[in-house]
């Protein structure tokens, strides 16, 4: 077994058990069964020697909450158990985690290879911020594995992956790209937000560092922001040091909400995936839909790779509407069980076009260059009953179609009248 994978107490338990008990075997004050929200900024000591030992890391304990906090620690331990990681570091947001990791492991004159359709914010770090600090960035066509391998072979310090991608659900072959990175000694970082640790464990596939936006499926209720990074203690001590100094630490109340959310992750995802598969299959039959992206569809380009590296296909489906933004504007308001919002991974179903969700940071030209059409809608499937979600989507499409027929009939009539008139 790899040295970055530490067998934990509950490692032999299933993931549905680990989401509940992982990191929770701590004796809390008053014998509380739930993790307390410890809001103290600092921790006091009578014994000055003990204070010194804790400060120097010789003894376990806490000094100041920007560095570590008892509530945040439980969350970090839980993530270690879910990703089978030695260590984890929590951040105030997913972007803080991604930015923190990239800044920890890249410096002036170095080179990073990644793909064009990573999360919009991540893409901005690659395009705008890293070049400014003298890091060379090579972004490859996500589906062209050979070109990614080619760029890696030219030499790089970091390979950054995200799979499945947001919002087009492209699947990258993690094992194959890790092998290419190892040949040039590059560190591999993977964003596992879409898959969640229940569906995919990148560390077990050879990745060095895993990042999560805990805002999404981990917390699961759309009411908190957070990010977590996992990996070997050797690597995480560097990430922790970066966070300590740069200060994007997670606050204890948010940590508590994320801990609470994770406990139902397995239950939520089970229901969400059943509905995601059903919605994807229905969308394939809908005449107003040009194409459907869901790795669980056998015809999906990444289906076989997804099967080999994922335990489930996730709860995000995206589709392209015939008629582009015009149809998007008509369809989305007709949905009853849907937030129209720029979030994902919550218990409620959320619909959103890429231009106001994952790629709100990008211009129309940038989205076009990324192959993200204006008619693309992303669905984050919630935990509602599958039948209700299907019926809701069907009635919305029927209404759009009937209005379309009505208006074209109307347009036809006008034409005929005009003919008669002239
Ligand atoms: C949302 C998201 C992020 C950013 O996370 P925040 O918590 O919003 O900062 C990063 N990667 C992916 C894949 C995401 O979906």
Automatic annotation (TrEMBL):
The modification N6-(pyridoxal phosphate)lysine is found at residue 216. GO terms for biological process: transsulfuration. Its cofactor is pyridoxal 5'-phosphate. It comes from the Bacteria. Keywords: Pyridoxal phosphate, Transferase. The keyword Transferase applies. Pfam families: Cys_Met_Meta_PP (PF01053). GO terms for cellular component: cytoplasm. Its EC number is 2.5.1.48. GO terms for molecular function: carbon-sulfur lyase activity; cystathionine gamma-synthase activity; pyridoxal phosphate binding. The keyword Transferase applies. Belongs to the trans-sulfuration enzymes family. This is Cystathionine gamma-synthase. It comes from Pseudomonas arsenicoxydans.
